[in-house]
Amino acid sequence: MHTLDNVIWQALTMRQTQFAEGFGQARRFAQEVTALCGFEQESEQGYSSLAELVGQGGTAALFFTKAYEPRNGWDLVAAAPLLEMVCEDDLATQRSSSAPEISRLGPEDSPEMVALATLTKPGPFGSRTHELGTYLGIRCNGKLVAMAGERLKLPGYTEVSAVCTHPDHLGKGYARMLMTEIMRGIRDVGDVPMLHVRADNARAIELYGRLGFRTRFAGHFAVLRKV
Q1: Is residue 1, in this structure, part of any structural domain at all?
Q2: 137 plus 156 within the same structural domain
Q3: 225 pairs with which residues across the strands?
Q4: Is the pTM of this model over 0.90?
Q5: Rounded CA gap, 28 and 36, in Å?
Q6: Is residue 125 part of a domain?
Q7: What's the CA gap between 175 and 70, in Å, rounded?
Q8: In what order do the strands lie in the sheet containing 214-226?
Q9: Are 40 and 66 in a shared domain?
């Protein structure tokens, strides 16, 4: 199996075990970190382990290689086609002297980060998501208006995630600036940048392509609730 196959399970059993909660063949991130969950295999035992892990009424956000098929005991809350993209080329450019100041975000910025992610919906984001890696932001008049950071970490790879911009500040190149800095940091430690994006998000996919990302495979994202 390739390192980027079953990425959530791989991350939680390799480089990010400090954030993992587990039962049998299932793992999830601590709920304040992110809603992402994974199991070793999409099997009866895998789902049984996941059910014990999330509990009655609990939810799990999962990545699948194909569209989720209805299963007894689970409700489908949300679903979307998903692309996994990898950037093997170093296309990072120098920052312009007129570019806005980029600052590193930390625990004190968490409420603003959660608020921006809630507004723009880049994916599951919690009060402790910032602990997963480096997060950078751009402020306008003191208000956080754009951010990007690192989420899943696997041997040789780090995921670029939470790329989002406030609707009032779109079209200024903030996402590209932030991603370029995050990608530079990922390469500085010897990792390859990768990411996940909804397959119907044409604007984001076009940007990622200009930054050197290429689609590795097309899968699916689903949020399930145990009933």
Answers
A1: no
A2: yes
A3: 59, 75
A4: yes
A5: 6
A6: yes
A7: 36
A8: 59-64, 214-226, 74-86, 192-198, 157-165, 143-154, 135-140, 102-104
A9: yes
